[in-house]
Amino acid sequence: MTYDAIVIGSGQGGNPLSHKLADLGWRVALIEKEHLGGTCINTGCTPTKTMVASAQVAHYARHAARWGVRTGEVSVDLARIMARKDAIVQSFRSGQERKVDQRPNLDLHRGHARFIGPHAIQVGAETLEGERIFVNTGTRPEIPRIEGLDGTAYLTNATIMELRELPEHLLVLGGGYIGLEFGQMFRRFGSRVTIVHRGDEILTREDPDVAAELQKLLEGEGVSFVLRARTNRVQHANGQIALMLDVDGDSQTVSGSHLLVATGRRPNTDDLGLEQAGVQTDAKGYIPVNGRLETNVPGIWALGDVKGGPAFTHISYNDYQILYANLVEGKNVTIDHRIVPYSVFTDPQLGRVGITEKDARAKGHSLKIGKIPMSWVARAIERDETGGFMKLIVDAGDDRILGAAILATEGGELIQMLGTLMLAGLPYTLLKGAIYIHPTLAEGFFTLMEEVKPA
């Protein structure tokens, strides 16, 4: 079968791309071996943030006395939480299926895709051919090589969301975004939680003050941390999982009922037959692309997490937007120098955009820094949610924002205002004279801008 375009993987880049190309009258093949929607809908954003919402309700109920509200004993029905999550996931999947069914020139092929040539894909017994092929196969959990781990019933970000009974003590291997979100979530559900991390601080890519503040807030909720810990061995016996650690040269053992492995992701490229098409990968298996998302083979593009770089759903969607602009609208848009906002959905949320202070200093920028605690923001005080801070990194030469971090309630929402200013290329001083609705969390920007000083 010959197509105008073949899209491998129905993630948040591949789905809209296949829909839009089909709407142009192209004959399009969409290949998916599992559920439509990719990581985001099935094992990522949608289910995890649904569960985060349940965890927040449990937290509010358990601590209602802070706000002068009386409640009784609070318990969590994990099976019901999972059922709510499953229903939302299924509704999103069904929506994707309807979008495919509505397009008669979009063929959905269920099965594993494998290149058998630069412009030929095998799916089961079928061979699909096309001059334009788009790879959107995403990533999966990276499982470290640790003695005894293979024989342990460990959990991943996907399988932990299949639990129906609450872990008594959840061990989390990895202090990154995934580990922290699940760690806080299950602590709020009622589990004991211990996070084991190799680095000196959690969230290694963030500034030390951000990592330290978030760790302090999570510890305030009862989450335990073991840092600078190398896991040498894993044992599973008598219903307990034990991690044998080397912590600053000393041996230490941490035991729990369940183990979540959250030590990173790896690209789904090792079984695509890319060598048959001549498509190159880097040492970690990611597919290098140029600014227009083209691989080294003409007519083959890669989008989303599989190409490396920031692994966020909104990046995958922006990849689709760039491809469509170039291929259909005749524009010359690239992924180079794009401004990427993101959020870690702990509570408080960490909203981030641009570069960190440590990266800005490493690049030799002359800086101005503004930083205020959320305890200076009226709305945060009124909500009794004053943990965290706002931080602004400014180029002292032109007063333009290089980056920002907002660790606050709704930090992910707030950061996008600063991202918009960066997109416009305007100086931070524009916000000094802005009028903010009172009382809102965004009103904190007024004070933040006043605090920007040479650093």
Automatic annotation (TrEMBL):
Reported cofactor(s): FAD
MF terms (GO), sorted A to Z: dihydrolipoyl dehydrogenase (NADH) activity; flavin adenine dinucleotide binding; NAD(P)H dehydrogenase (quinone) activity
Keyword Nucleus: no
Family from the record: Belongs to the class-I pyridine nucleotide-disulfide oxidoreductase family.
Active-site residues per Swiss-Prot or TrEMBL entry: H438 (proton acceptor)
Name of protein: Dihydrolipoyl dehydrogenase
Pyridine nucleotide-disulphide oxidoreductase dimerisation domain sequence ranges: 340-445
Domain FAD/NAD(P)-binding: 3-316
Binding site for FAD: K49
E.C. designation(s): 1.8.1.4
Listed InterPro entries: FAD/NAD-bd_sf, FAD/NAD-binding_dom, FAD/NAD-linked_Rdtase_dimer_sf, Pyr_nuc-diS_OxRdtase, Pyr_nucl-diS_OxRdtase_dimer
Residues binding NAD(+): G174, G175, G176, Y177, I178, G179, L180, E181, G264, D305
Source taxon at top rank: Bacteria
Signal peptide: none
Disulfide bonds: C40-C45
Cofactor binding note from Swiss-Prot or TrEMBL: Binds 1 FAD per subunit.
Keywords: FAD, Flavoprotein, NAD, Nucleotide-binding, Oxidoreductase
Keyword Nuclease set for record: no
Enzyme class: oxidoreductase
